[in-house]
């Protein structure tokens, strides 16, 4: 699994599209987070890579408990093909005044920690520039 993380509108999706092309990945299934619950109906035999983006939107809208939501997202990691997560870092900056926004920020932080721990590779995208945070085979 590969995780790409960065701020909103920092070029994550464009970077991943370019990376997928360079990797020769043609059969890619894109899932937007706000559709995460019903987006896994597709022809699994032809899909090489699943890209899941906008998980924070789904997390904000789901009625699942935080732990159940985290478990669900972790279950989306495919064992039979490449899974790529594109995450928006909402944990930086000013702490929100609204209690629900603080709760979402904290839940995203806990989910992102689990995704990063599980990931083979992690890359931060900042204004279109990539910085490797974790690489397969390297000690962390």
- C-alpha end-to-end distance: 16 Å
Average per-residue pLDDT, rounded, comes to 87
Output the helix-strand order.
EHEEHHEHEE
Provide the spatial order of strands within the biggest beta sheet: 2-3-4-1-5-6
| Cα gyration radius (Å) | 15 Å
Proportion of strand residues: 15-25%
Shape field: globular
Largest sheet: 6 strands, mixed
Helicity level, as a percent range?
A: 25-40%
The total count of helices amounts to 4
Give the class from helix and strand content and strand pairing.
alpha/beta
What's the number of extended β-strand segments?
6
Stretches where pLDDT is under 50 for at least 5 consecutive residues are none
Give an account of the 3D structure.
The protein has helices at residues 12-22, 55-61, 66-75, 99-118; strands spanning 2-6, 28-32, 49-53, 82-88, 121-126, 129-134. It contains 4 helices and 6 strands. The longest helix is centred in the last third of the chain and has 20 residues, at 99-118. It has a 6-stranded mixed β-sheet with strand order 2-3-4-1-5-6, sandwiched between helices. The radius of gyration is 15 Å and the shape is globular. It is of the alpha/beta class and 140 residues long.
């Amino acid at each position: 699994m590969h995780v790409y993380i960065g701020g909103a509108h920092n070029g994550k999706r464009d970077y991943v599209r370019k990376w997928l092309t360079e990797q020769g990945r043609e059969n890619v299934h894109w899932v937007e987070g706000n559709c995460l619950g019903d987006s896994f109906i597709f022809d699994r035999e032809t899909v090489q890579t699943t890209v899941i983006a906008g998980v924070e939107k789904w997390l904000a809208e789901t009625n699942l408990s935080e732990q159940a939501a985290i478990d669900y997202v972790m279950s989306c990691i495919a064992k039979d093909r490449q899974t790529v997560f594109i995450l928006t870092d909402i944990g930086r900056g000013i702490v929100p005044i609204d209690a629900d926004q603080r709760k979402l920020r904290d839940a995203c932080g806990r989910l992102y920690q689990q995704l990063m721990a599980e990931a083979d590779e992690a890359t931060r995208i900042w204004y279109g520039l990539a910085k490797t945070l974790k690489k397969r085979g390297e000690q962390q």
